[in-house]
Amino acid sequence: MFTDLIKKRRSVRTYSDKPIARETLQVIVDAVFHAPTAKNLNDVELFIVEGKEKLEELSTFRKNYAGHIARGQAAIAVLSDTEASPGNNRQDACIAATYILLQAADLGLGACWTNVNSAFDENDQPATIKLHEILGVPDKYNIETVISLGYPLNEPKPKVPRDMEGKVHWSKME
After folding, report:
1. Which residues span the domain enclosing 44?
2. What are 24-38's pLDDT values in tens digits?
3. What's the Cα-to-Cα distance from 153 to each of 16, 18, 137, 145, 156, rounded to whole Å?
4. pTM confidence score
5. Radius of gyration over alpha carbons of the chain, in Å?
């Protein structure tokens, strides 16, 4: 049930050494291409990274908060083609990334979103520049996030829902 899935999904940053089967990654890919997009322009693309050496390099694209990528068994960079959908590409990429996170949880995988757009590398340059270089991605692509994947090393603690008090408005704001 979807409600159970959203309650189960957590950001996981420590992973076991158990490899992720290519077929399992393909299930995640398939889920992404069922995600809605603005105007059905199909501007989202995925860059899947496997292999410890490449994951280690990928984890250096920003100066902090990306070490979990090196600990994973795979990572997916969510790209959007800024030429195909200049006004909607970022929201399409975010929807796709959400599908990755939910499908991963449904498969028993841990996953963690790594922010790209407001991050900086070790030289205080925008992290997106280094990330484009590491992946060899042309500039016409926005890289919205890099999501690490792996089987959780430990069972994540249940999520405590955020307080909704004052955050939900029915028909008007007071």
Report:
1. 2-150
2. 999 999 999 999 998
3. 5, 9, 31, 23, 9
4. 0.94
5. 17
